[in-house]
Specification:
mainly beta; ATP Synthase, domain 1; 5-stranded mixed β-sheet; 0% helix; 59% strand; globular
């Protein structure tokens, strides 16, 4: 069994979100496909579009609007590099 994920959303000015114990992350990619990332996911580098990013942790499911950017998945960590986001987390 793989440990849960860490999710970070970073802009040039600030860390918008940094949460641990994330069960899954869903994002919309520039090729038009959505992607689901679960613990143990293979390393990945992909371009994202302006769209909601969804994730689940121990308190439930959450969604936040994130501008286009780069999604980087490494062992146990999902990082989104973006120019901005709507810091309001829904859910």
């Amino acid at each position: 069994m793989f440990p849960l994920l860490q999710l970070r959303i970073l802009t040039p000015a600030e860390t918008v979100l940094d949460v641990t114990d994330v069960r899954w992350v869903q994002a919309q990619l520039a090729d038009g496909a959505g992607i689901g990332i679960w613990p143990g996911h293979a390393p990945l580098l992909a371009e994202t579009v302006d769209a909601p990013l969804r994730y689940a942790d121990g308190t439930g499911e959450h969604s936040m609007s994130v501008q286009a950017g780069i999604l980087h998945v490494t062992a146990g960590r999902v990082t989104v590099y973006t120019m901005g986001s709507d810091a309001r987390i829904v859910g």
